[in-house]
Amino acid sequence: MPDSERYAALDLGSNSFHLLLAEFRDQRMVRLHTDRAMVRLAEGLDAERNLDPAIAERALTSLHRFRPALTELPADHIRVVGTNTLRAAANADGFLEAAEGILGAPIEIISGIEEARLIYSGVMAAADGPPRLRCVVDIGGGSTELVRGREIPHQLQSLYMGCVSFSKRFFADGLITENTVNHFNRARRAARAELQELQHLAQHAEVVGCSGTVKSVARVLNDGELTEIRRKDLDRLAEQVAGAKHVADLNLPNLDEERRPVFAAGLAILHAIFCELDIQSMQVSPYAIREGIVHDLAGRLHGGDRRADTVASLMHDGRVDAAQARRVGDSALDLLLQLQPLAGVKDQQRLRWAAQLHEIGLALSHNNSRKLGAYMIEQADLAGFAKTEQENIAHLVRNQRGRIKPPREHYGFHPNPDRLLCLRLACIVHRDRTDRALSALQLTAEEDGYQLRIEREWLEKNPAIEELLQQEVEHWRSHERKLRFEAV
């Protein structure tokens, strides 16, 4: 890695948006600039999971402050991620398109498990001493992540409870106690119910908390310092908050006024975690998801792309024929570079990964392998991948041969016909699992489609392929872009 490399990570969370600008100096990450906008996006989700336009507009307005920090960086040094609320929102497409226009950078919606992995990576970046078993806790605005691991995570959990969503659910209008109902106790019980069967995560492990709720509680308990949270102190604080009538009545030292509206809900979740997982003390990490994103970006550019490891693991677990995956991948990329000599890294990566996984469904079924393979890729928690990346790869796997099924396009998912054609042709050329050079094939793009020219002598040696190519021409007749085939 060069002596100095600069990266930007922007986390579009359910409670707040956070920016981190950092660089690596002699392989050590140095934080250069941080910024935060408290937007409470989760407040805008209604019962049908639609995002309220007024809150969406408030969030979009806040994004303008982050744009200057992103403009000077290369595109592959920036990663913007959306978490729980943007995962859940049924009408997120319009917001995401507008936000991308403001930021000038794409937004990746990540799964809860991918969020947990990035959080753990960030916390480990600040950890010192020899590797040891740790349990990392992050209470966000819409979800709570818990991870158990050593140098790498072993178990990851993402629970649908957060300080904003619980505030909306249990502390309407800021009320903590209403008549005889104690909302703090109700919120704590609900959190403990979500934690059932997860008690093992903290056993024999050092517990580390990170992000807003944990830091806020630590400051209240420790004279403004981010030091250890002890169970006996947390018990007293929980009892004090439960005895209040309204969040406005919370006279707590070092409580940030921006944090006040969601403090009771976050504390109820944190206390439930301590009680249910039998935690006696929690260390507090200054790092979290944003630092994890920066380390992930640096890894992608310097040979440590977690996504490549994930694909390799899937191939191993699915008993994929690695030789066939290589054949198809090499030929598909050769064809893509004929069409697009300057094809970007992202296009090439997605095509290669689709080729490596195009037979993953054979482990479950021969007749339905394409459908099952695509479903596995689309729905699985794949470390390193954004949900839209999985959808794009799944589309290629689903349509590797046969009738081309038109997809429902949405934000971040824009099927690329060039990649699709190249994968389909590569599958035809190597249908019999035989190595074949493509020097006799010439694929060009035309105004309304594609022209495939193949030397007649090559076709005479491979008559079955000629028939499959004629069928392929028929499949593309119903597509917006047509395929023409000519023997020369």
Automatic annotation (TrEMBL):
Keywords: Coiled coil, Hydrolase. It comes from the Bacteria. The keyword Coiled coil applies. One of its GO terms (molecular function) is pyrophosphatase activity. The keyword Hydrolase applies. Residues 23-298 form the Ppx/GppA phosphatase N-terminal domain. InterPro entries: ATPase_NBD (IPR043129), GppA/Ppx_hydrolase (IPR050273), Ppx_GppA_C (IPR048950), Ppx_GppA_N (IPR003695), PyroPPase_GppA_Ppx (IPR030673). Residues 307-472 form the Ppx/GppA phosphatase C-terminal domain. Residues 181-208 form a coiled coil. This is Exopolyphosphatase / guanosine-5'-triphosphate,3'-diphosphate pyrophosphatase. It comes from Microbulbifer donghaiensis.
